[in-house]
Amino acid sequence: MLYLIIAISCLALLVLCGIAYQAFGARSDKRHFPAPGRLVEVEGHRLHLYELGSGSPAVILESGISASSLNWRAVQTESAKVTRVCSYDRAGLGWSEMGDQPCTPSSLATELRALLRRADVPPPYILVGHSFGGLVMRAFAASYPNETAGLVLVDPLDPAEWTPLTSEQRRIINRGVSLSRRGALAARIGVVRLCLNLLLAGNRLLPQMTAKAWSGRAYEVTDRIAGQVRKMPPETWPLVAAHWKQPKCFEGMARHFECLAESVKEIAQAPALEVPVIMLCGKLNDHPADPREHAKRISAQTRLILAEQSGHWIQLDEPQLVVSSIRELVEKARDLSAALSR
Questions:
Q1: How far apart are alpha carbons 10 and 6 in whole angstroms?
Q2: List of domains in the chain
């Protein structure tokens, strides 16, 4: 009995130390890694908007299900040479605060439009969405066609691959929610912070062992994400790590997974768009369905481009391909605007 009391006391002490470690670290991160853009109040919470360049039409960059504005840094910097380019963080991710809106494409599109209006970013827009972000941009274009000049979809999620949901896909979604909640708990007691600090210092053994113990085989997913992060500019690595040390980011990811089935169903039932669309598909990524059929369902004006050297994260593998697609639609929108003004 005495040994049990000692063990419980030691565990409680470790947890308290972890909570203190997390609190002091979070305070330090806030000082050292402030938001590079503006924090704009929308529906009772603040969203982070990062802008570069000037001109019209404005380009709006939408990230994947758990990513932040940072994964667009190379594309945004280069595209800003020709027009105004805005990246942002959805509620709960990156520098944005947690909101209470459902994470479905229609709700997120409504929130994005409110952000752009509050930040005085006038339409028309070239909408660029990666993976899950492609669903959000399709919802935006469907709801606000008069404000949409074109879309660039970067290896977008195909609703046909998730309609109807299989038992395996439901298991994947439930697993994503569960692991995200566990991640939030690990972040609250400082475990995530410790592991990421060790990784940044070059020590991979303990973080890998911890990930395996905490999440089982899911550590393979974290390894893949870490591999994608290493493709980003090195100066962004500490910023990405600072975000993932926060429980908020895991909670934000869990909310996205909880709404994923509804999100897919929502866009599967959406009508085809009537704006120019360029769809980029990573040739090295596994696409169970035919990308050509996916492209046709999006719009009769969809042009499909296979990214020969890319997996799922084309903006990291071949950023110039995304940049050239953005420029093509910017020029097309400007030519149309000039013709209508004559």
A1: 6
A2: 38-164+271-341 (3.40.50.1820), 167-258 (no CATH)
- Model pLDDT for residues 286-308, shown as the tens digit of each residue: 887 789 999 999 998 899 999 99
Token couple for 208: 């890998």
C-alpha distances out from residue 148 to 29, 87, 113, 126, 193, Å: 37, 16, 11, 6, 41
> What pTM, to 2 d.p., does this model score?
0.93
Which parts of 263-321 are beta strand (E)?
277-282, 302-307
Place of tokens 């897919």: 264
pLDDT in tens, 117-135: 999 999 999 999 999 999 9
Q: What confidence score (pLDDT) does residue 231 get?
A: 82
Beta strand 85-88 with 45-52 is: antiparallel
Total residue count of the chain as it appears in this document: 342
User: pLDDT class for 336, splitting at 50, 70, 90?
Assistant: confident
Q: How far apart are the C-alpha atoms of 342 and 339, rounded to whole Å?
A: 6
